[in-house]
Amino acid sequence: MIPFNKPFLIGSEIQYIEDAVRSGKISGNGKYTKMCQEFFEQQYGFKKALLTSSCTDALEMAAILANIEEGDEVIIPSYTFVSTALAFVRQGAKIVFADSYSDNPNVDASTIESLITSKTKAIVPVHYAGIACDMDVIMDLATKYNLLVIEDAAQAVDSFYIGKDGLKKALGSIGHLAAFSFHETKNIISGEGGMLTINDDRFIERAEIIWEKGTNRSQFFRGEVDKYGWVDTGSSFLPSEVTAAFLWAQVENIQIIQTKRKQLWEYYYKKLSPIATDLNIQLPFVPEYATNNAHMFFINFDALEQRSIAIQKLKEKEILAVFHYISLHSSPYYHEKHDGRVLMNSDKFTNTLLRLPLFYELTENEIDMIVSCFD
Fold this sequence. Notes:
The chain is an alpha/beta fold. It is built from 14 helices and eleven strands. The chain has helices at residues 13-22, 31-44, 55-65, 82-89, 135-145, 201-211, 217-221, 241-251, 254-272, 276-279, 304-316, 332-335, 344-352, 364-372, and strands at residues 48-52, 73-77, 94-98, 120-123, 148-152, 160-162, 168-170, 177-181, 194-198, 297-300, 353-356. It is globular and about 65 Å long.
C-alpha cells in the first residue's frame, strides 16, 4: 500500500525529547522552544515567532490580537480549512467569502476590493499548497483601507513571495500576523503544533502576554518587569517542550527534508506533463511571483465523475489519494450566512482537485506506479 502521507523522522527526535525530559523543563517555553523560535526569526525574517499547540491556536491568537469583535467583517477564501474561518467566528466576526483563481486555488486578489466595506477589519489570504497569494495586491489594499492582513501559512513553511520590487520574502513575514502548522501532514512536523509570527511591532508585546496565558510571565523572567500578574486575556497556547524538541530535530534538518520533497514534486511533474493533455487533467500552477515548497502535489480533473473514477482506480492498486476542502460557503453552517454570490472556482476545486501521495520516503518507482494508474 502507498499511503497518502507518512510522517518522517529525521533520526534525532528521540534524543532531543529525552534531553528535554531529563532537563526537568517540559511544560513549554524552554530551551527547544527558544531554539525553534530563534531559527525561524533569523532564517525567514519574522520579527517575532511564537510556537503554539496548533495552527488553529495561532489563528485564534491572531484574531484576539486583531481585536476582532461582533459585527466586524473578515475576508477569507471559501476554499480553505474550517479553522481559517473558525478563529474569527469565535470572536464574533462575519465571514465574507472570496473566490479562487480559475487556474489555482488561492484567493483571487482582484476580487477582494469589491468585498471591502466599512465593517471590514482583516483579510486572511491562504497560501494553498505553499504557493504564495499575490501579496503586493493584498498589502496595497490593506494600506488603502487600513486593514490587517493575517496570512494563513499553514502549508507554507520555507516558501516565498517575489514582490514587484524584486525582493524575495518568506511567506508569513509579509502580513501583520501569520499562522503556520507543524501537523504530521506538513513538510516539517511535531505531530500536532503550530506557530504565530508577528511582523508588526504593535502586536509583539501583547502577543507574548496572550501566549503566556494572559500574564506578563515572559517579561518577568527576563527581568523586564518586577511584578508578575494577569494583564490580558489568554489561553493555553504554548506547546510542551517535548513537542518543541521533536520539532527542533526537523527544523535543524529542514533543507535536507525540503530538497527531497522538491525532487519528488519535480518528478511527479516530469512524469505527468507529457500525458496531462491526453488525460484531460491540469497540473499545479505556480505564478511567477511564487516559489514552490513542495508541500503538496495535486491535479485537477474537468468533473467530479472523473475524479471519483481516478480515486477508485488508485484504491484498487492500494494507493490512497484524497480530495481536499469542501467550499465553506456551501457548508451547512455557512450556507444561510453567505450572501448568495456564486463562487464558481471554489466550487470547481471542491469537485475536481485530487491530492496525490507526497512524503519524504516516497520513491520514484512508487510515483511511476501512481502515474501508471491514470493510463
